[in-house]
Amino acid sequence: MIEGGRTEGGQTLLFLTDEQVRKGIEAMFFAYRGFTADPDRILAGMAYGRAHHRAIHFIHRSPGTTVNNLLSILGVTKQSLNRVLRTLIAEGLVESRIGRQDKRERHLHLTDEGSALEQRLSDAQRDRMRAAYRAAGPAAVAGFRQVLEAMMDEDMRRQFDAMRDRGQ
Amino acid sequence: MIEGGRTEGGQTLLFLTDEQVRKGIEAMFFAYRGFTADPDRILAGMAYGRAHHRAIHFIHRSPGTTVNNLLSILGVTKQSLNRVLRTLIAEGLVESRIGRQDKRERHLHLTDEGSALEQRLSDAQRDRMRAAYRAAGPAAVAGFRQVLEAMMDEDMRRQFDAMRDRGQ
DNA sequence: CTTGGAATGTCAACAAGGCTGACGTATTGT
DNA sequence: ACAATACGTCAGCCTTGTTGACATTCCAAG
Question: Does this model's pTM top 0.85?
């Protein structure tokens, strides 16, 4: 299906037709829809959307992160993020603590209620991801991650790799 | 990194920590950003957006497709799609031909100008995808596709597989 | 100690692109 | 003749992104 060859130098060559690459593009499109479908369904009833989910996810992932840090991870403007954070704080899902060293900074934490929602959302998303992983097998998962990482922008890859170090 | 085992029955078991699955989720998030970044940049100057890109892509992919068909592929309402199609038709990028057998249907085609834009957009996106494929290697690409397909909703997978048959 | 700049918050206005609901018009099939 | 289908359109709403302008608070350098 996808042909690969090796030169003497050991460099991998891929003989990819435009058609094969296009299938990859479309797979990405459809898969991302599935990827967001479950959290979207959960959030549909509430006054929250995908933007709230993303904020909650990364606050959960990096408790105490600053607004600026979150900004660069999410890749949106502070005004856009602020609107989301404001509602989350007002609704008691997120707590914003003034920094101790630098009192300009706000450190963000999930409240118990926020953690509960995070759990609900990520459970749904993780279930789907886990099912996909199981269906595809370990080798496929490794390849999946490799291609995704190669598809990121430089800055994002750095962010991602930095999070890898801190993670697990 | 990701451990896999096999039972006697031949069924693959994956021992995935929540952490590993979460990394997959975040990889998906960051990669999708990269995935759309290039077309977004191109479209930023024009009066078009991601929605126009998607319509153009699938009209290019299935010339003569009907509005209803496009609707179910894109997963949006007809009002939403109509807004996009209206501008594309008005700007002369898309042509809408009344069906011959069923005159209620409109068959959509790209004009030369529409094809030119499609080319620009997909060139950028394909370059990135191709680079990622090359960086990751053939085995990784196969795995990538397997996981993506497993991540889709049922209906979408059917759509996708149907397009596979017609494709290449 | 003053001041420039950084980090944050907030207001206003706007646009893209989703959505629902309602309605109109051809056309087709029963 | 009539119901259903395919499509277009108007109106209004929501989320989430954008820019621009401005206030506040604080750190750090002069």
Answer: yes
**Position B122 pLDDT exceeds 70:** yes
Answer whether any strand C atom is within 7 A of the Cβ of B100: no
Q: Are A109 and A63 in contact (CB under 8 A)?
A: yes
CB contact under 8 A, B14 and A168: no
What digits encode the pLDDT tens for the residues B86-116? 999 999 999 999 999 999 999 999 999 999 9
> B15: closest CA among A145, A23, A130, A126?
A130
| Chain B residues near residue A130 by CB distance under 8 angstroms | 14, 16, 21
How far apart CA A27 and CA B129 sit, in angstroms, is 12
Minimal Cβ distance to A12: which of B14, B33, B137: B137
Asked if residue B101 keeps its beta carbon closer than 7 A to nucleic acid strand D, the reply is: no
DSSP state of B69: H
